[in-house]
Structure formats: C-alpha cells, structure tokens
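Title: Prediction job returns without error message
Component: structure pipeline
Severity: low
Priority: P3
Assignee: unassigned

Description:
Job completed but the reporter wants confirmation the result is attached to the right record. Sequence as submitted:
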Amino acid sequence: MLKVTLTDSGAETAVTIEGRMDTAAAPEFEQALEPVWAMEHPQLLLDCRKLEYISSSGLRIFLKLKKSVDAKGGQVTLSALQPTVREVFDMTGFAKMFQIK
C-alpha cells in the first residue's frame, strides 16, 4: 500500500511518500500529485524516509515529475532515501538527475 501526503508551506511543497511504489501503486502516486501538475513554479521536497521500494513504473513517474517541474523553472529535491531505494536510484542513473539530501 502507498500513502502520499502533500503539505504546502508556501515556499515549498513537501511530498511524503510511505510504503511501496510498485506497478500497481505508481498510478496512485501520479494521481496524488494532481495539485503539483498545476503549479506554476513548483519547489518540491519529496520525503522518501518511509518509501520502502520503487519499481520502474515508480521511477517513470519521478522522471515525468522532474521534467514537468524543470519545464516550469521549479526544483525537485529528494530526501532521506532508504538504502535499498538509493541503490535503485544509483543503478539507474536517477541519482545524477535529482538533487538528493
């Protein structure tokens, strides 16, 4: 099961991701980001502290999000990647595409 929470502080929007982002949950993640797709200059912090797993479908949504935010002059920062998730980002080259704290 995947849980996504958006919290807007005015300066940035924190996106907390909990659970497993597998093929079945990726569309749910994309839908949860609905308000983000409409933002004009998004500043996003994706809190991945409780993200246990990410599949290629999940990575595809991350890439779509990054391209959308970049096109609008915004920024996506990932924080607190779990070692197993970080390994996936490193192996796929995604770690070079995203700012990671």
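Comment from assignee: result matches the submitted record. DSSP finds five helices and five strands in the chain.
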